[in-house]
Amino acid sequence: MAELTELADDRALLGRTSTAERVSDILRSRIAEGFFPPGTRLSEDSIGGALGVSRNTLREAFRLLTHERLLVHELNRGVFVRVLTVEDVEDIYRTRALVECAVVRGLGRSPYAVDGLARAVSEGQRAAREGDWKGVSTANIHFHRELVALAGSARTDEVMRSVFAELRLAFHVVDDPQRLHEPYLARNHEILRTLQAGDGDGAERLLAGYLDDSLKGLVEVYARRVADGGQGTAD
Fold it and tell me: Is the pTM of this model over 0.85?
């Protein structure tokens, strides 16, 4: 499988201090980047071989990611990437609104360190020009990750890292990723410009409306796809 070949490239990240936490970091990132869609069964032999880690280490990494709600263990069947419910999606957005809006609200005086946001906006625009809507989705997550990073809090970054990975699971069942993600290219850019202008209050208002509209749009298509039994991986 192509994703296992790419996963093997991550072996160098483990170095001599291979730990379950580092393995879970790699797998979390791969889930967030879309290599393992919801419902995918994760093979201990294949993944352990690709990363060069023991079965016990891999099982501990699976346990950590199960605790983060990214994986689920099914008795006598194995470990699978979790398929979210509509309620899960709604809860993710409640968390996003609480954290992301609080980050912007607490920025203080300008100027703000928005270089990371600018790079994510450019990344999304470039992917859109190439018709790469999976790339647009990834750039969008990068934008919000950079937004959270403005708080300068490792704890907040860690919490939201799992939230964004879980959000990506919802994106996987969307059958028209362009329709879902394209409107937010301009809205990300608008938030960036507002922060560059030093208007933190304006950026918070834009972000709150953005998250509300994004939730409504995602829940609509997600509920329809789940009802149809869809497990699309188009994004």
Answer: no
Question: Counting beta carbons within 10 angstroms of the beta carbon of residue 171, is it exposed (0 to 12), middle (13 to 18) or buried (19 or more)?
Answer: buried
Q: How far is CA 177 from the centre of its chain?
A: 15
The whole-angstrom separation of Cα 136 and Cα 91 is 23
Structure tokens belonging to residue 77: 């069947």
Buried/exposed code over 122-137 (b: 16+ C-beta within 10 A; e: otherwise): ebbbebbeeeebbbbb
- Taking CA atoms, 161 is separated from 65, 168, 178, in Å, by 12, 11, 24
For the chain, how far is it from start to end, CA to CA, in angstroms?
Answer: 19
d(CA 182, CA 234): 14
What's the CA gap between 184 and 189, in Å, rounded?
8
CB burial string 105-114: b at 16+ within 10 A, e below: eebeeeebeb
Segment 96-113, tens digit of pLDDT: 999 999 999 999 999 999
206, 212, 208, 178: which is closest to 192 by C-alpha? Answer: 206
Residue the block writes with tokens 């008795």: 75
Backbone angles phi, psi at 11, to 5 degrees: -55, -35
